[in-house]
Specification:
The chain is an alpha/beta fold. Helix content is 31%, strand content 14%. The protein contains six helices and eight strands, in the order E-H-E-E-E-H-H-H-E-E-E-H-H-E. The chain has a four-stranded parallel β-sheet with strand order 5-2-1-6, with no helix packed on it. The protein starts with a strand and ends in a 5-residue tail after the last strand.
């Protein structure tokens, strides 16, 4: 199964369920940036609330090619995001196993949003154990080749209802299970079991 998908920042479980089940995933490089989307934000669970982590970008980027959107590194967002992640998951069962890798990657300066997102995506896939081939597109194709499932602009909300038989797991804070957070939540809470959970879930997106 081959999939074409847009590139998100520390994507949610719906996104990674697709990645875990696909044989090959094409990452769209030639789309335009969309504000208030998962391209530069993700959600984690803290003691008080569901916290949104947003990557700041330079200038007005509506309609600008995603690959050309530059990061505002003057804000030191990587360090700030890491502090939030540490506060949220520092006591999780598998934090110590993965924290050094994620902290190093997240606090490294990148020039563009695409570079940041793709670097983090490859790292998380490696840590989770996803062996799906990732390939960046070389041109923009409005209609992908036959046999490729086009999932661009389909994963747009945390509370999406496309996941089937979504499995719950023990989260760090609270008794109520919060669905479809950033992959960091599953990774830190379940460690090696994360890949089993992802592969046991199904997504309506793949039934197209």
């Amino acid at each position: 199964m081959q999939v074409l998908i847009d590139l998100h920042y520390l994507p949610n479980l719906e996104y990674f369920t697709v990645l875990a089940k696909a044989d090959k995933v094409y990452i769209e490089k030639f789309e335009n940036f969309q504000k208030q989307s998962f391209r530069n934000r993700c959600y984690i669970k803290t003691a008080q609330k569901i916290d949104r982590l947003t990557v700041p970008v330079v200038g007005a980027n509506k309609g600008r090619p995603l690959r050309k959107v530059k990061l505002d590194n003057s804000t030191q967002f990587g360090v700030k995001h890491w502090r939030s992640i540490l506060t949220a998951y520092g006591r999780s069962p598998y934090f110590e196993y993965y924290s050094d890798y994620i902290e190093k990657a997240l606090t490294t300066p990148y020039e563009t949003l695409f570079e940041l997102n793709f670097t983090m995506l490859k790292l998380i896939c490696k840590l989770v154990g996803i062996k799906t081939t990732l390939e960046i597109t070389s041109t923009f194709e409005k209609n992908p080749a036959e046999g490729i499932i086009d999932l661009r602009n389909t994963i747009t909300k945390t509370d999406s209802g496309t996941l089937i038989n979504e499995q719950s797991y023990i989260q760090v804070f609270g008794e109520n299970f919060e669905k479809n957070l950033s992959i960091l939540d599953l990774l830190f809470c379940e460690g090696p079991n994360a890949i089993i959970i992802l592969k046991s879930q199904n997504s309506k997106l793949l039934e197209r």
